[in-house]
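Summary of Year 1 activities. Much of the first year was spent building the evaluation harness for sequence design. The harness presents a backbone, in tokenized form, and records the residue chosen at every position. We chose the following record to illustrate the format because it has been used consistently in internal testing since the harness was completed.
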């Protein structure tokens, strides 16, 4: 099997995400919540299913506005679990709502999720996973790894031969700003 770059290049479902989002640096709190939510929803499922349901998930979660999601009540959870346009997993939905509240709690000390990420960078995959498990719900190693790669904190999203790789490097993502040995396998 080839890389995601090879796979996504002509795939209408994956192409836009690959070419314009995956690995690009992200600081916007709502986008960060959405990316974390998508990775949580993906656990145990294919990324293609998540991308197919992405727009309806975005709409169902009020554009992943952190304050709005954090204020969801039982009727909102029931509305979400009744929405066939999203992944209807009670534990995943509850974790996303709880994680929005945890992001709000980061604002005082870090200025929000982006500030928290920046203040903890650089860490290797193992250290990031430990920190995410301590801070958020439903965040195992693969979820954390993909979230951090998708938002520019860990390398590995694109092959060096991929045209998007050079485009991302021009934006100086966080992973590029540190000694690459930190990301070496343990």
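For this record, the design step produced the sequence shown next.
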């Amino acid at each position: 099997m080839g890389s995601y770059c090879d796979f996504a290049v002509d795939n209408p479902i994956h192409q836009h995400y690959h070419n314009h989002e995956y690995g690009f640096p992200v600081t916007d709190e709502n986008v960060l919540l959405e990316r974390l939510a998508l990775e949580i929803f993906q656990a145990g499922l294919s990324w293609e299913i998540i991308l197919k349901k992405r727009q309806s998930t975005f709409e169902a979660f009020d554009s992943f506005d952190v304050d709005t999601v954090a204020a969801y009540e039982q009727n909102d959870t029931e509305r979400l679990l009744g929405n066939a346009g999203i992944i209807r997993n009670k534990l995943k939905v509850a974790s996303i709502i709880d994680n929005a509240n945890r992001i709000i709690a980061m604002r005082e000390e870090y200025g929000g999720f982006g500030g928290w990420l920046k203040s903890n960078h650089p860490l290797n995959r193992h250290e990031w996973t430990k920190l995410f498990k301590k801070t958020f719900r439903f965040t195992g190693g693969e979820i954390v790894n993909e979230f951090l790669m998708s938002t520019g904190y860990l390398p590995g999203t694109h092959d060096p031969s991929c045209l998007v790789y050079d485009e991302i490097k021009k934006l100086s993502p966080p992973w590029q700003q540190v000694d690459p040995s930190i990301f070496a396998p343990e």
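The chain has a mean pLDDT of 95. Quantitative recovery figures across the full test set are reported in Table 2.
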